[in-house]
Amino acid sequence: MDIPTGRRAGRHVPVPIGVGCNPRAGTHAFPMDADTATFHALRPRLQGIAYRMLGSVAESEDIVQDVWLRWHAADRGGVNNPEAWLVATTTRIAIDHLRAAKARREHYVGIWLPEPVLTERPATPEDIQELSSDVSVAFLMLLERLTPEARAAFLLREVFDVDYADVAEALGKSESSCRQLVHRAKAQLREASPHPPAPIEAHQTLMRRFAEVLARGDLAGMKAMLADTAILVGDGGGRVTSLPKPLMGGPRIAQLLFAATLRYKDVIRIELAMINGKFGVLRYVKGELESVQCYESDGERITQVHVQRNPEKLARVVAAMGQRESTPVN
What is the dihedral of CA 72, 76, 81, 83, to 10 degrees? Predict the structure, then answer.
């Protein structure tokens, strides 16, 4: 897993397809004043911070709406740097939301996974590599290991390129404390994911091949493309059937994926789509989206599979399908 480091990832802040379409905060048919225009110009950045903090599109939109209300009511005379004010406010609210979310997730049925989002295909290979490293489902799951404040400090500094002075202001801590938070967070994330990431071009090529194998129901092909040590994690949220614990081993994962082909036969359809910055799979059964599958690889074989089946977390993907870029696989 690529851990974003250094002052480079803040250049590209992707907006998931269908995210930020709340009519209360959408486009306006009338001219906006300068303060409103400032907020809307920064909205994708604020949305990106909130989503990476919570792993939930719905909660991130609620946070940004709350920030808008506070910005609307704020005394602008006391705001020297609007962007710093908005980023700090978003971060503080997101930290509070994450603390509450962690408490709720202790009672979550089964394994909790982030809500997947369809993302636009970046223009260049460099943008793809950058996006895949800081918004992938696997990366968001790694961030779950951090405390809310450490997660915020790491994201602001390493993903959004925020100066330590502004990180300190957002967290209400000294710059030296924030440097320590970020240093420890990077060490913790590297320890949890010590292997270097596959070049994104190799991963995308692998996923094109794997999607074709899935669509054909080729069990031998699936086994060949899954690492022996691969792991599959599923989230049904207690609403649909899902695995209660991670499934270990490429052959077992291949058997599970193949079982769906046997069960649904001609009513199953596989589409390749850009999901959280990487190629993933949309699996349809009888014309309805049954799961969103996100994959990690070493460039030669697949090492991780995250399967989202919770209908609540699939709803926004379904709603965004009219704006999507996906590729049916024959």
Answer: 10
41-85 confidence digits (pLDDT tens): 999 999 999 999 999 999 999 999 999 999 999 988 888 899 999
Closest CA to 120 of 138, 132, 112: 132
Under 8 Å between Cβ of 294 and 286: no
In the DSSP assignment, the letter for residue 107 is T
Q: Which residues, 6+ apart, have CB-to-CB distance to 24 below 8 Å?
A: 65
CA dist., res. 168 & res. 184, Å (int):
16
Task: State the CATH number of the domain containing residue 90.
Answer: 1.20.140.160
- Encoded tokens for 53: 């903090």
Q: What digits encode the pLDDT tens for the residues 162-204?
A: 999 999 999 999 999 999 999 999 999 999 986 777 888 999 9
CATH of the domain at 245: 3.10.450.50
